[in-house]
Amino acid sequence: MSRLHVYLRPLTIGLLAVVLGVVAPSFAENPADPSPTVSQPQMDLSGWKLVWQDEFDYPNEDLDKHWESQNAPSHHILCSRWRENVVVKDGILHLVNRKQQRGGQDWTSGSIWTRKKFKYGYFECRYRYAEATGTNNSFWLMTRGDDPTEGKRFEIDINEGHYPNEVNTNIHNWSDVVVGDDGKKSHPSAHKGFAFGMRPDYSLPLEIPITTTRLRLASNTSPHFHIRELRVFGVSDRYPDPLSESADQDIDGLVNHAADASARVTASGVYNPNTRPEHAVDGTISTSWTSPDDGEKWIELQWPDPITIGCVQFINGWQKDGHWTGWGQVSDYTIQAHDGKTWQDVATMNSKDEADFGANYHTYGLLWTEDELVFYQDRKELRRTPNEFCKSECPIWLSEAIIHWAGTVSDQIDGTSMKVDWVRYYQKENER
């Protein structure tokens, strides 16, 4: 898990560049449909054999037989991480967040990796998020040490989960370095994020800021929906409350590129002449762009020169007597940026159900083959992409972190934990 800046510039391996020195996602690597949806075929484990597992059904001190612990600060995040923050109790692994000055940082948490190394197969972990914003609840794979003899040094984030309802998948190539025209060094990386559930306000900080001239919001919601404000902020450690009508002024120095006079706003159509696309960027939630009932539904912003985006916010739906109702809200959305040739997904929501991944356990999985990487939640497919460079053995990692780009960091984090029920690794019966 790492945070880096992405620039929309095609690389030979087909992923996107990431600037060194900060922490991780980017864009999906496949062009999206004009009205994108996320297909969710099921992972079928018939013909697979469970060959390794950890159910955490042992005393806390026995954890060290199977896992190594960080025991050091992590300067790119807000916490140091220590074995004392990793607790096995009653069959559950807890990665505990504490407001505690240690290792030069104000917070502590836990990060561990397996002593055993793994390669191709199906990886799955059942866990709950820490119940506070600002936490990064991660299940991932990463090589350690020098470049492997096969493939590249890599990181596969099966899920960097942000409370309450975000799933983030990332793929990083840590071997290759690209130097841009500005002299900045970058690594190839690709991100795709998912948010579940419906609400009036969305704030979507990008773990890897993006540079582009075109951005749009698309949805398949039927019949029509209202976008009351669409904001496109520059890079910052924090962002305003999306429901604040004064959001553009709430944080000194923060720029809303959607309000730029040079920005051109267009849409796939309007519900009626009084709900024009410019109403979505006029600085007030009393007006809206309302989508047509049928056909493609999208609203797009275009700038004459490239801008760098750190967060996208939007408000949707309808207010009645001072309260937001579900009417006019999107039941799905995709935020997309244009790379000069195609639209690339930045963030996607695809569920009509309310989601709280801190209150309930969910499983997060990865099918890793020589040719392909397929990501799952609850064995439903989220993302599928070619395996370009992840070709060598690596440990399994479980990590909790405290970071600004996962939401507001507050004292509510103190005492929360990422709770892991089990981790499992399967291989095909005929491949053992």
UniProtKB/TrEMBL annotation:
GO terms for molecular function: hydrolase activity, hydrolyzing O-glycosyl compounds. It holds the Pfam family Glyco_hydro_16. Residues 28-431 form the GH16 domain. InterPro entries: Beta-glucanase-like, ConA-like_dom_sf, Glycosyl_Hydrlase_16. Keywords: Hydrolase. SUPFAM superfamilies: Concanavalin A-like lectins/glucanases. The keyword Hydrolase applies. One of its GO terms (biological process) is carbohydrate metabolic process. Belongs to the glycosyl hydrolase 16 family. This is Glycosyl hydrolase family 16. It comes from Rhodopirellula sallentina SM41.
